[in-house]
Amino acid sequence: MTRLHDALNELAERAPQTDLAGRVVADARDRARRRNRTRLLAVPAVAAGVAAVAVAGSLAGGGEPKSREVTSPTKNVLNTGALPGPLPAGPVEPMKYAFLDFCRRVGDMSRNPPAGECAQWRVVGRSGRQWRVADGLGAHTVRTDTYMNGSAPLQISDDGRQIAYYRQADERFVVRDLTSGQVAVVAQRVPVADLHRTPAALAFSGDGRRLAISFHSATADRALLADTTTGKVHKLPGSWVVGLGRDASTVTLAESRKGRTTLLLAGPDGVLRERVRLSPKVHLGGGGNMVAPDGHTLATLPGLPPGVQDGPAPRLDRVMLVDVRTGKPVGTRKVQMPGNTWPAARVGWAGRSTVFISTAWPLDATAPDADHLFTMGERGHLADLETGRVRVFGTILLKGGQIETGFGGFTP
Q1: pLDDT band at residue 345, thresholds of 50, 70 and 90?
Q2: Cβ neighbours of 294 (radius 10 Å)
Q3: What is the DSSP letter of 193?
Q4: Nearest to residue 391, comparing CAs of 316, 321, 338?
Q5: Quick check: 33 and 54 in contact, CB under 8 A?
Q6: pTM for this model (two decimals)
Q7: Is residue 137 a contact partner of residue 73, using CB atoms and an 8 Å limit?
Q8: Among 75, 248, 260, 323, which has the highest number of CB atoms less than 10 A from its own CB?
């Protein structure tokens, strides 16, 4: 355990610093480093917050496994058995989960990075069937002096009928319509070198017609809003999108300067309409489309107090609703989340009064097996804000040493 602790300290020291002044947006952008997904480097939880990634890990060595030929997930673990085949060009079922598991490798991946099929995203349909996204970029090496490799984002739409990801062949983000197999190419080129420098995060509007591409960057690269049918792009007046509502008629972004957080309200054409000071009572963490279908109600969760960089994770027992037009809270709804949940990776809306919340797999479930593999993942919850009741939408359970996970398909 001492070796693991020392390795995690080293990782935190080497992780890139950000110049974001406010904890509020820093937390939100930290989630972007996880591309709206949970990244875990498996050990019982030790947070390395400087890297903006939820990290805790086993650094035992291990080689690159070859693709296996038989796939049969057992005991609800999604990545036992062989790698699945590539996603076909034609129609397929709606998707529910996405993950990177690097062929269940453990150890330092920066010096021996995953490649080929082991570096590709996998998606899981509602039936449980899996595919690889063979034309998309998954894992890539960011630098050779860190225990973590990088990854390009992949996002499933709220209804599960579209996926967005980065295609290295032409250095563009693309949106694949799973009902038809048609692919829309986002017009704005994003060089792969920029992804090494500036991790990106993706979010669909509730109706799936718009895709926001946000950037975590000290140079404040401007976020993009793309039409998912035509690929047409508008640049937005900030770098971090926190909500699109149902139809992206209003795009909500956040920025932090000198410890103050401001919401930027823009139209779908990228034109800034208004700047609104966000109440210091609001903790803006997580990622995804956090604005309700009405276009102005922002869902936020408990977080560490402003200025506090470390400490026990607050209990996820309530949702604070904020009107983006005023920046002020308009109400708090108690929700009956399980007591052993850990900070949310994604927040979204599954209806007028239902919020989707994803959390890291309970930390007492991460004991290693005989092969030094840990069981870890992410769980999705649907919280009814009117009754406070919470039900489990699904669980991504994986064996491995480092993973990234994501949800979609939680609306009809």
Answers
A1: confident
A2: 12
A3: H
A4: 338
A5: no
A6: 0.83
A7: no
A8: 248
